[in-house]
Hints:
Layout lengths: L1 E5 L4 H12 L3 E8 L8 E2 L2 E2 L3 H14 L3 E5 L1 H17 L6 H20 L4 E3 L4 E4 L2 E4 L8 H4 L4 H5 L1 E2 L7 H10 L21 H9 L4 E4 L5 E5 L26 E6 L4 E5 L5 E11 L10 E6 L6 E9 L2 E11 L6 E6 L6 E12 L13
Parallel strand pairs: 1-2, 1-6, 2-5, 6-9, 10-13
Antiparallel strand pairs: 3-4, 7-8, 10-11, 12-13, 14-17, 14-19, 15-16, 15-18, 16-17, 18-19
Amino acid sequence: MKILAAMSGGVDSSVAAARMVDAGHDVTGVHLALSNAPGALRVGSRGCCSKEDALDARRVADALGIPFYVWDFAEKFERDVIEDFVSSYARGETPNPCVRCNQQIKFSALSARAVALGFDAVATGHYARLCDGRLRRAVDRDKDQSYVLAVLTAEQLRHAVFPIGDTPKSQIRAEAAHRGLAVADKPDSHDICFIPSGNTRAFLGARIGVRPGTVVNADGVVLAGHDGVHGFTIGQRKGLGIAGPGPDGRPRYVTAIDADTATVHVGDVADLDVHALTGRAPVFTGGAALSGPVECAVQVRAHGEIASAVAELIGDELSVRLDTPLQGVATGQTVVLYRPDPDGDEVLASATIAGTSRLAGASGSRRPGV
């Protein structure tokens, strides 16, 4: 096959490209330039897609003897990932930019260009597996990235290859060293790639500006002021601007965010329990929508807790009823449904969380939009 290998400059994508070469495919490497100022995108192990990463990717391509190109996707990345991230926080949501990047950049724009140029598939260094067209968790559960890939359609997956999903990360590093690749010991990137400082609040504040509001308790009593709801997320405990714990001596957490009134609600940890949620813009990775209620496992963060649930498609939204509550679930996050399977959980669907609720009669504030 004619393969376009997406090469970030890290060890995972480098070994993925090498395995495609070993398999006898016609491989071309490509690095995505995602910023007009790439020199500012890496601070140690934070960030990615910098000039350093592009050079690392080129060196690996040279070692593998494959053609290598850099494609400029900076404008689209700014519009579809960074601006989406900022506007989502301004609405009081908690987005996952890695999900949007996979959806809008790596497996939409990149894949579409690759197919248009005659490539059969795009190979990446994601930890996930494709079995008969079905997206499954990686063998290395600690590195599994099926969650951030669950927004891909069946057609996009048809043109995708994940060469390292069947191998633990430690073995990938050992393989890179055996191949003599200089990136074998390169540290993994952490946090949000376009915020290498790690200071998300400062990044958002510079783009959104001051939008003052209040922090209130369950009784509506104003406890503090704030400069914008973008500085908060559901489940947050620190940095609330309030003096000490609640009257009962227990810590207080952000339980709801109302961007329309710039109000941040805080309460007890029990107020974070979520028993049901709805998801908009569902994607069914296998191509077929859910037919009736389906028992499944649910995950709402990339490496978060997994809960059993029953999900069904009602109209154009996913309705998910959890068997046991999850805590700290926020609108804007991605909910992913898995079919439990001894051979590796299969991804059934994903959606963007639009609302959450508690069991009738449960104490605590009701979340906006539910």
